[in-house]
Structures are given as structure tokens and as C-alpha cells.
């Protein structure tokens, strides 16, 4: 499976900062050591082009990001201090998702070892999100006639408010967000389908709801590509999560999403989105589960089919 990753996804933050920036290199190392990402499968993105970012983001906002002239309130809303490295990192991560989407359209499945920054709106960032990578990737591929319809499956525990707002009037983009109803953001935007979850929800109820809604979505909507935001913050013990998924529940979640896409032959792009376990090592461990499941699913599909299947040559 091709995966986008750049060492500069990591940007140093003050030691007391709550965002676990170290999870990006830790996840990459973990997947590389486990043989889940081989050197030949790695895509190293460049910085996303401004013309591409403009398909979603306001010129004024992009100009302020480039020049470092966001006011204090705007920086506070993002929650990560501005730096030239952060601006570069944000553009690298957008391009990573775009490159992963292009790879998924060829191979059936690909990933970005970052991305899923779903709280970014056209004219401002918030909740640790600067640019909306999935929205930019969809708009670029639509512009380039590579796809018409996209489905966003957002299982980060926080509602994908930026993504919902960006595609609110676009019937070709189905935004599905399953999130903590009482969790951030306080003011939710309207996705095509929002499923708000009660605090403390565990594996069985979570997985039953997921299964039911995935089946209904795929009955009504046939996307050319699926973007999966595989946030691991619904797992028990997450600092910002409030839900109680176990590791095994998370594994089943990843398996069901990937199988739902695979069984319908829908190209799928994995982005990692949020995760705030007690340590960055633990967060990286949880993020690695979707990659373990993705590679296992491809192997099973290749084993069970006598004919070449999309992606089978790139397990
Ligand atoms: Zn989140």
C-alpha cells in the first residue's frame, strides 16, 4: 500500500503543548519496522500548490498564513503556534492526502500518515487544524476530472465541522461524521449525515451504529473515492475523547470500514486524523491498527481471487 509521509510532518512545539506532534515520526517508524510501509511504497510529498489550496481556502487566510500575520485570536483558535515550519508542514500534509488519493485511484487503497484536518474552514483554522487536506484533495481531483463523487467517512471523535461546512451545498460530496455529541466543536455544522454519540459509548453500540449507517450510505450513494478519517480519539483513555472503545473495538471498526469500501470496489484513502492517548507512543500504536488491517485485507483479497484485483500487486 502506498503511503505518503514526510519527516517535516513533525514540527517542534513547546514541551507543554498538548498536541502530540511526535506521533507522526513514531507512526512512520513503527510501520516501517513492521514492514507495513516499504521504501518503494513511500510517497514523499512536496508542498501543496497555492492554486490548489485556493480551491477551498480564502486568499486572505492563505496570505496571512504565508506571511505569519494571523492575529492572536486566529492563532489561538488554531491552537498551535504559527511558524514557517507549521505553514510548510500544513502544505506538505495537504499534498500527502492528494498524492494518496491519486495512488488510491490507481491501486484501490492508499494512505497519508497525517491529514484528516477536518476542523479547518475556508477562512480560518481551529482545533489543531490549519488547512483542510481532504477538501482540497477532493476539489483538485474534481477540477482535474479524476472524480465526481466523493464520500468522507469521518470517525474522529470530534465532528468534522470544517469539512461539513465546505461541502454543505455540494450533492456530489457525502460527508458522514460519527462523533461525540457533547464533545468539541460546541457548534456543529451540518454534515450530509451526522451521528452524535453519547459520552461513554462502548464497542458494541458503536460498531452496530457504524455498520447500520455504512450500509445505508452505500445503498444511496456511489462515490468514485472514499476518504477515511481514522481518528483514534474514540478509544478509552483518550485525553479529549469521552468514548470507551477498546483496542479490539478499534480494530473491528477499521476492518469494517475498509471491508465496506473494498467489497464495493471503492478506492479508499486513509488519513489518520486525531488521537490523544496518554503518550505519543501509545497514540502511534493505535494509529498503526488501521494500517495493519489495510494490509491484511489486501492480502486476503489477493489470496482469494484468481484474477488480478485492483491493488493486489501492492499489498
Ligand atoms: Zn478529534
Helix content: 40-55%
**Rg over alpha carbons:** 18 Å
Q: How many strand units?
A: 8
Largest sheet: 8 strands, parallel
Give the structural class. alpha/beta
Question: Could you tell me how far the N terminus lies from the C terminus, measured between alpha carbons in angstroms?
Answer: 5 Å
- The H/E string reads EHEHHHHEHEHEEHEHEH
Count of helical regions: 10
The overall average pLDDT, rounded, is 95
- Give the low-confidence spans: 311-315
**Which strand order does the major sheet show?**
2-1-3-8-7-4-5-6
Question: What is bound: which ligands?
Answer: zinc ion
**Principal-axis shape:** globular
Percentage of residues in strands: 5-15%
Describe this structure in words.
- By secondary structure, the protein is an alpha/beta fold.
- It has helices at 23-33, 50-53, 59-67, 72-78, 84-107, 133-143, 161-166, 203-220, 247-263, 280-303; strands at 2-4, 42-43, 109-112, 150-154, 173-180, 193-197, 225-229, 268-271.
- The chain has an 8-stranded parallel sheet with strand order 2-1-3-8-7-4-5-6, with helices on both faces.
- It binds zinc ion.
- Zinc ion binds at residues 156-158, 231, 233, 274.
Question: Keywords for this structure?
Answer:
disordered C terminus; alpha/beta; binds zinc ion; 8 strands; globular; 315 residues; eight-stranded parallel beta sheet
Amino acid at each position: 500500500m502506498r503511503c505518503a509521509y514526510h519527516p517535516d510532518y513533525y514540527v517542534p512545539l513547546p514541551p507543554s503543548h498538548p498536541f502530540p506532534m511526535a506521533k507522526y515520526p513514531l507512526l512512520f517508524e513503527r510501520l516501517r519496522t513492521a514492514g507495513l510501509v516499504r521504501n518503494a511504497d513511500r510517497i514523499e510529498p512536496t508542498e501543496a500548490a497555492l492554486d490548489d489550496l485556493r480551491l477551498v481556502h480564502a486568499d486572505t487566510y492563505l496570505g496571512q498564513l504565508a506571511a505569519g500575520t494571523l492575529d492572536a485570536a486566529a492563532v489561538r483558535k488554531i491552537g498551535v503556534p504559527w511558524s514557517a515550519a507549521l505553514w510548510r508542514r500544513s502544505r506538505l500534509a495537504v499534498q500527502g492526502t492528494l498524492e494518496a488519493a491519486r495512488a488510491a485511484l490507481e491501486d484501490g487503497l492508499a494512505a497519508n500518515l497525517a491529514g484528516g484536518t477536518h476542523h479547518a474552514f475556508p477562512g480560518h483554522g481551529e482545533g489543531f487544524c490549519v488547512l483542510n487536506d481532504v477538501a482540497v484533495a477532493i476539489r483538485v481531483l474534481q477540477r482535474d476530472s479524476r472524480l465526481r463523487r466523493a464520500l468522507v467517512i469521518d470517525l474522529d471523535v470530534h465532528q468534522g465541522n470544517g469539512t461539513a461546512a465546505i461541502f454543505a451545498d455540494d450533492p456530489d460530496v457525502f460527508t458522514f461524521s460519527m462523533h461525540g455529541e457533547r464533545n468539541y466543536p460546541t457548534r456543529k455544522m451540518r454534515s450530509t449525515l451526522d451521528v452524535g454519540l453519547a459520552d461513554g459509548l462502548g464497542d458494541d453500540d458503536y460498531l452496530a451504529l457504524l455498520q447500520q449507517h455504512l450500509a445505508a450510505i452505500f445503498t444511496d450513494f456511489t462515490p468514485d473515492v472514499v476518504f477515511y478519517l481514522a481518528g483514534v480519539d474514540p478509544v478509552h483513555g483518550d485525553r479529549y475523547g469521552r468514548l470507551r472503545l477498546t483496542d479490539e473495538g478499534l480494530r473491528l471498526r477499521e476492518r469494517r470500514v475498509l471491508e465496506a469500501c473494498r467489497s464495493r470496489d471503492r478506492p479508499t484513502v486513509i488519513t489518520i486524523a486525531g488521537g490523544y492517548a496518554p503518550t505519543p507512543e501509545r497514540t502511534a500504536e493505535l494509529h498503526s491498527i488501521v494500517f495493519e488491517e489495510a494490509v491484511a485485507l489486501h492480502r486476503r483479497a489477493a489470496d482469494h481471487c484468481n484474477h488480478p484485483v485492483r491493488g493486489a500487486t501492492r499489498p
